[in-house]
Amino acid sequence: MTAASTPVAIDPAVLPPYVLALKDQLGYLPAPQLERVLRAFQVGAQAHEGQTRKSGEPYITHPVAVAGILAELGMDAETIIAAILHDTLEDTALSRSALAGEFGETVAELVDGVTKLDKMRFGSRQEADAESFRKMLLAMARDLRVILIKLADRLHNMRTLGAKDAPSRRRIARETLEIYAPIAQRLGMNKIKAELQDLGFRALHPDRYRVISERIRAALGNRREAMGRIETALSQRLAGEHLPARVLGRIKSPWSIYSKMHGEHKSFAQLMDVYGFRVVVENAMNCYMALGVVHGLYKPVDRRFKDFIAIPKANGYQSLHTVLLGPFGAPIEVQIRTAEMDAVAERGVAAHWAYKTDSGPANSAQARAREWLSTLADNQINTASSAEFIENVKIDLFPDEVYLFTPRGDILSLPRNATALDFAYAVHTDVGDHAVAARVDKKLLPLRTRLESGQLVEIITAPSAVPNPAWLESVVTGKARTAIRQYLKHLQHEDAVDFGHRMLDRALDARGSSLDAIPTEVLDRFLHEARLKRLEELLAEIALGNRMPDVVARHLLALRDGQSDDTAPGARAVHEKIRITGAERGVLSFANCCHPLPGDAIIGYLSPGKGIVVHREECPNVAELRKSPERCVAIEWDHDVQGDYRAELRIEVINRPGVLATIAAAIAAADSNIENVEYAERDLAAATLLFAIEVKNRKHLADVIRRVRRTGVVSGVYRYPL
C-alpha cells in the first residue's frame, strides 16, 4: 500500500454486513466523505489481512465497530476514518507517510495520537503503559478527537472482553475504572462513562455485578406502577402550565449502586428507595419555570437544590437538580434541562459535532475540556516520571464538586476535599508558592482548610513565603502537587550543590589545594570522563553520597598534575569542620538510632542516594561507621540553628490513674509537642513509657526533663537512647 494508490469504485454488493451497517449509520455524511470512509475500510482491511482477534473474527471488525460507536455520536469523517485505521501504525506495515498521503495529515496525526509506544524499550509494562498514556494525553491537548477514538476503542474492547484470559480481563477492567471511565466523565460523556463503568464492574467483580443486577430488576418490577403514576403526574402538570416537555424515568446502574454502597456505606434498599426523573424542555427560561411547576406538585426537600445552569460543572454539564418528597413517602430526584443540555450531558465534548450550538464559550464542554488538557500538558513538562504524571492525572479525574468564588466574582471548580492551598495554585503558581493564609468568607483561616461550594476565597501572600514539604500532605490537585514538588526539587538541588562544594573544597584543602585552583580544562575533562554535563551535577552527586569527595579530589589533582591517582599527594588532617543548620533539604537526614540535637557532638556518614546521615558521636553505631573513613564527614552544628528536632525520653513512672496526663501536661508546658507515646514495660506498681517529642536543641530537652522530674509522679527520666 503506497501513498500513490488511487481510489477505486467500491461495489456495495461485496461489502460485509458490518460495513453496510456502518454505512447506514453514516447517513449524515455527504456522499464524497462517505466514499472516503469506505476507502479507509478497504485500506484497513488490506493492511490487517490475515490478522484475527482472540475471538477468531477478522481483526478489521474491531476498528469498524469502533467507527460505529463514533458514528452514533455523529462524529466527522476524519474521526471515522482515523477510527477505522487506528491500529494500522501499531500492528501493520502501513507507514505514517502512506497514511498521510492517502487521507491527509489530520487523519495521520489522529492515528498517531492513539498509537502506543511499543517500539520503545521500557523497564516494565507499567512504565510503558504510563508513557503511552502520557503521549496520548498530549495528543489530546492538540486534538480532542484523539481521546474520543481511544474511548470508543476501549468501549468496544470492554464489550468483547470475554475472549481474554482472566488476569488480562482484571487488568484491563481496573484500568478502565481508574482512568478511562473517569476521563469520559471529565469530558462530560456520561453515556460512554456509564457503560465503561458497568462493563468494568462486571469483569472485575462478576458475582457482585450479578447479584446487584438481579436485585435492580426485581426492585424495578415492584416499582413500575409507582414510577408510571409519578411520570403521568409530572407530564400532566407541565402540560397544564403550557410547558412542552419530555419526562423520562431514570434507573441507577449496577456500578453506581455498588460504588455508593461501598463509598457511602448505604444499603441497597436505601439507594433504590429513590425515584429518578429527567424533564427536557425547550429553553433555559423554561427550565426555571418547570422547576416552579414541579415544586408546586410535590414539596421540595430543603438544601437539596443545585443550579448547574448558572454555574456549569467543569465538564460543561448543565442542569437543574432538585429533590422532592413524593406521594409514596420516598424522595424523587428530578433533573431539568434543555435538549441541547441533554445532548451535552450524554455526549460531552462529542456533542459539538452532532449538535450545532450557539452557546458561548462559558457553556462549552469543549472549551472547558481544552482548558483542563492544557493544564495537564503544562504540568507534565515539570514531571519527569510518567508514573508520577499518571498519579496527578488520576487525582484530577475525581468528579468536580466544589465551586468557589474569587474576590473578582470568577468561579473556580476544584475536586472534593480541595484546600485553600489548592485554590491558591489554581489561581496561579506564583500565588500558591507565596501563599501564607486564606480569607474564606471574610474569615482568616490556615491554608490547609478544606473548602466548600459557594465560598468566597481570597489568598494572602508574602514575597518571603515559600513552599515546604508539609504542603504535599494538604493538597489534592495535580497542579498544586506538581508545582510544590518542582519547587522543592529546585531547593534540594541548590542545597546539594552548596553542600557538595563545601565537601569537595574540604577534601582538596586536605591535599593542599582548592576547587578554584583546578584549571577549567581539567574540570571539563573529569566531567566528560564521569559522563556529567556540569560541575553542579558533580557537586550534587557528592552531597547525595553517590561520589566520595576524597576520591574526586585525588582524581582531579592527578589529572591536573599529569599523574596517576596513586601518586597524587596524600591527605593531611583538616581540623575545620563543615557547619550545618539542619535545614539542608534533601542532603541531610537524622539517624533514628540516636536522634542528634543541636548542641550534640555529631558526625556525618555519606549514604549513597540519601546524602549525609547525621549521628551523635556517642551513638553505638559510630564505631562501625568509622570502619569506612572515606564515607565519614566531619560536621558540626552552626551557631544559628532553627526548627524542631525529634528526641525520645524513657520515663519510669508510678503506675496510677492520671499519670500519663500529668506528664503530657508538663511536656506541653515546656513548649514541646508529643509525637508518640508507647509502653516499654508495665506492671501493677510501675511502668516505663517512651515519649517521642519535638525540641529545638539540647538546652530545650534539658528543660523538658526538669519539668517532668518536678511532677512527682516519676522515678526516672532519661534521654533515649542514652
From TrEMBL:
Domain HD span(s) in chain numbering: 59-158
Cited InterPro entries: ACT-like_dom_sf, ACT_dom, Beta-grasp_dom_sf, HD/PDEase_dom, HD_domain, NT_sf, RelA/Spo_fam, RelA/SpoT_AH_RIS
Ranges of residues in domain ACT: 648-719
Keywords (A to Z) from UniProt: Hydrolase, Transferase
Domain TGS as annotated: residue spans: 400-461
Single GO MF annotation: GTP diphosphokinase activity
Reaction(s) catalysed by this chain's protein: guanosine 3',5'-bis(diphosphate) + H2O = GDP + diphosphate + H(+)
SMART domains: HDc, RelA_SpoT
Pathway where this protein functions: Purine metabolism; ppGpp biosynthesis; ppGpp from GDP: step 1/1
EC number: 3.1.7.2
UniProt function note: In eubacteria ppGpp (guanosine 3'-diphosphate 5'-diphosphate) is a mediator of the stringent response that coordinates a variety of cellular activities in response to changes in nutritional abundance.
Family label: Belongs to the relA/spoT family.
PANTHER family the record matches: BIFUNCTIONAL (P)PPGPP SYNTHASE_HYDROLASE SPOT (PTHR21262:SF36), GUANOSINE-3',5'-BIS DIPHOSPHATE 3'-PYROPHOSPHOHYDROLASE (PTHR21262)
Protein name as it appears in the record: guanosine-3',5'-bis(diphosphate) 3'-diphosphatase
Record lineage: Bacteria, Pseudomonadati, Pseudomonadota, Gammaproteobacteria, Lysobacterales
